[in-house]
Amino acid sequence: MQKSIMRILTCLLALLLAPWSLMAQHLAAELGYGANEKLLIVHADDLGVTHATNQGSFRALDKGTVSSASIMANTPWLPEVARYAISHPDADLGMHLVLTSEWRDLKWGSVASADRVSSLLDSAGYLKSNCADMVRSAVPEEVRIEIKAQIEKARALGIKPTHLDTHMGCLAATPELFRIYLETGREYGLPTLISRNRLESMPPAYREAITDQDMVVDNLFMAGEPDYEIGLETFYRDQLQDLPAGVNVLLIHTALDGAESAAMAGGAEAFGSRWRQLDYNFFTSDAFADILAEEGIRLITWRELAERRKQER
Question: Which residue spans adopt a coiled-coil conformation according to this UniProt entry (predicted)?
Fold first, then answer.
């Protein structure tokens, strides 16, 4: 009897999760891609944070081996990004929605006025240094105000975002913030970066927030500190050679090493100046282009995904 009850409960759970599973696993088919196509967005984060980041990312985008990038509207080099966006209207540029200011010496505050988002700011008026500190004090509605202010600032400068994603993953720190993230994407008609492989390990409340308006990519990959210690090129080669069919996103951080990047990092190795130069080196190299050809990987953009979805619906 107990085994029968367990079988029934298992079947019920499978039925409850079926809509989510189907939605997540068939994005490529829904958008008209072949079932066995290996699709990849190579996505450079942090545009606007430094001139060195902008220059490295612009060069990689112009070369065509980095297919997308995202913009931090709080940061000092945003006007340079806006000029690039206006002169390169086909560039796939989204919004890297920012709720933290993580570097020791390079800091930024909110785009919205401080009195409207005070729960997000520290005593000096900067955004908190990490997601955990942000979550402890954040008023969710103030998070909504701030991320919308970031999008509007970029739009006012002539930037036309192609998608939304989240700096340091902070908008996935709680189910409530995750819902605000998704709702903001729906409001602006923009895809938000969500992946099936990350959602599968998260609590059910995250999956329950997904609707058929949201676009869930199959896999999201990003190097971490252990991968940096072993070798970033090794990590990227392994990921590319094992890339599954479907829609995949690979997050990288491209910048040119030098005094500016080193000062931003302040001696930190994680996502620091050397790391960003290594990302730039690999993703603008002939070796990377050769792997794409050898593995039959097709580079795509967020704009392409959104346009295909519009055509298919």
Answer: none
